[in-house]
Amino acid sequence: MSVLGKLLANKRAGDEGLAWNRPNLAGGSTFRITSPDFEHESHLNVIHAGKRLGGQDRSPALTWSPPPAETAQLLLAIEDPDAPMKTPFVHAVALLDPTLGGLPQNGLAADDPAPGALILRSGWGRGYMGPAPIKGHGPHRYVFQLFALAEPITTGKSLESAKPAEVLAAGRALARARIDAFYERG
């Protein structure tokens, strides 16, 4: 076990800070999100992990059931509540066309996003950043959260430069969907 991982073993951001628990995003009904790349609460393949861990930073493919008919926009947020920080680490934020029924693998790439996806800032940079937990810190959960928004998101600045917290605070959910995965660095 890594010394740093051992020292931070009990330090975790926790679920409270997840987008899922924000009052503006906690509303309404639920719909279903799945992935052909992983089952709910299973482990992500190394291809989806960060490059420094030997992965390829490829976002998993996602599919979802139709959101409510009045959905103006979809908001996707991927967070790690097990990061040793005050708040969950944001691995991706994207605004999606409400007519989409899914994203292909690597559809959250900053330089080549899937059609209908506007890739926004994440924790460090833009686009999907794969799991890269501290060695020896134990398993980390990656929460893929999809929100059907009543109105398109606007912030006081351009969406491309807005911080994830600003984007997540700006929308109001009609419905939401969630799938969790795990990744652990040995």
UniProtKB/TrEMBL annotation:
This is YbhB/YbcL family Raf kinase inhibitor-like protein. It comes from Nocardia arthritidis. It holds the Pfam family PBP. Belongs to the UPF0098 family. SUPFAM superfamilies: PEBP-like. It comes from the Bacteria. InterPro entries: PEBP, PEBP-like_sf, YbhB_YbcL/LppC-like.
